Amino acid sequence: MSANSHTYALILAGGSGTRFWPLSRDHKPKQLLDLFNTGTLLAQTIDRLHGLVPIENILILTNEKQVAAVRELAPMLPAENIIAEPAKRDTAPAVALGIGIISARDPQAVMMVLPSDQLITNTAAYQSVMRDAITIASQCDGLITIGIKPTWPCPSYGYIERGERATITGVDCENLPYEVKRFREKPSSDLAEQFLAQGGFSWNAGMFVWSIPAVTCELTRQCPQLALFITELRNSSDIDATIAAQFPTLNPISIDYALMEKANRVLNLEATFDWDDVGSWISIAKYLPQQGCHNATNTVISEIESENNIVFNDRKNSHIALLGVDDLIIVQTEDALLIANRHQADAIKKLSEILPKNLL
Questions:
Q1: Peptide bond preceding 22 in cis form (omega within 30 of 0)
Q2: What pLDDT was estimated at residue 37?
Q3: Domains along the chain with CATH numbers
Q4: Which element (helix H / strand E) includes 322?
Q5: Residue 355 burial by Cβ neighbours in a 10 Å radius (0-12, 13-18, 19+)
Q6: What is the pLDDT of residues 106-138, one digit of tens each?
């Protein structure tokens, strides 16, 4: 099936490089890293859209520090499709920026909003789900969120509580969505266990699909400031100037708070593809070869009586040896070395508060 000329994708590729320091930096966050020798996560995100979205309809939103690297990574995209935010304003203004640019090109388009830093390997299953979402979005005024079936009671994800199967006239697809009852914030571990025991919950993966008319109508009701910004972009004779002048004035707020939790109709389509947000070195370890006693490593190491360590060596002509150490994260780059307790992997980002600026 060929790509639909009225289908667009907005890839969100900003963010900071704190969780995977010292491999990641401000100018090179997770989505720009080749963590598994399979290409960067951003490149994989673009590749998954082949045959689903025309290349000229893929937009990437990043920031000034990363825009050069993104352009180098995605030379196949038109230059005007890679946009640097002039200020950090969270996901709702970022998404509104994409909506404005797309609506100026095609007021009746259907668009996807996609993170750039998630690991998905089953492209066929991914495209099947996204095609269904595009079909549904083109036939109804609902806003579609792609949910991930929970595999464990994770307290670090937001959850989507589903209701009944949706009824959508004129839609012919195997995977019909559910009506969304409500979004649930990151729960305690006990509450997450209750969600899984109850059933009817999905992880919120931050992937959305909607038609331009549907989303602009909802934003007019729920967030007039963003709706006005979209109108200004659509009517602008100089979009770059409008972005530079107006974007920094927008209130920083997430798309969930600004829109999804308030919208009149939100539909949940549960993913049938594999998914991992690879949010920490612990996540990376699941995909690295094992050596010795549960040591996950991207390179050959020497080890004696050492177990449950994560070793990532990005420095050429350097060898790492372990002796009598357990539960460590060791990351070696050309200019920095991290040694951390693996049980504090989520706290690595705090190091950015004390590190020398030249290492950020």
A1: yes
A2: 85
A3: 7-270 (3.90.550.10), 281-359 (no CATH)
A4: strand 321-323
A5: middle
A6: 999 999 999 999 999 999 999 999 999 999 999
CB atoms within 10 A of CB 185: 10
- Number of Cβ within a 10 Å radius of residue 335: 10
Question: And the tokens for 82?
Answer: 């890679």
CA distances from 163 to 172, 174, 177, 182 (A): 21, 18, 10, 9
Between CA 300 and CA 330, with CA 29 as vertex, the angle to 5 degrees is 30
Q: Taking a C-beta distance cutoff of 8 angstroms, is the pair 20, 33 a contact?
A: yes
Is the CB of residue 66 less than 8 Å from the CB of residue 27? yes
- The number of angstroms, rounded, from the C-alpha of 347 to the middle of its chain's C-alpha atoms is 20
pLDDT digits (tens, 9 = 90+) for 213-245: 999 999 999 999 999 999 999 999 999 999 999
How many Å apart are CA 95 and CA 234, to the nearest integer? 14
| Residue 167 pLDDT class (50, 70, 90 cuts) | confident
Q: CB-based contacts of 230: which residues, under 8 Å, 6+ apart?
A: 96, 99, 100, 103, 216, 219
Distance CA 165, CA 176 (A): 7
CA distance 345 to 211: 39
Angstrom distance (rounded) from CA 90 to CA 253: 5
Token pair recorded at residue 210: 């909607």
CA 96 to chain centre: 16
Per-residue buried b or exposed e for 297-307, using 16+ beta carbons within 10 Å of the residue's own CB: bbbebebeebe
Contact 147, 203 (CB under 8 A): yes
Residue 10 structure tokens: 């907005």
Q: Would residue 39 be called left, alpha or beta, if left means φ above 0 and alpha means ψ between -120 and 50 degrees? A: left
Edge-first strand order for the sheet with 310-313 is 290-291, 295-297, 310-313, 328-332, 337-341
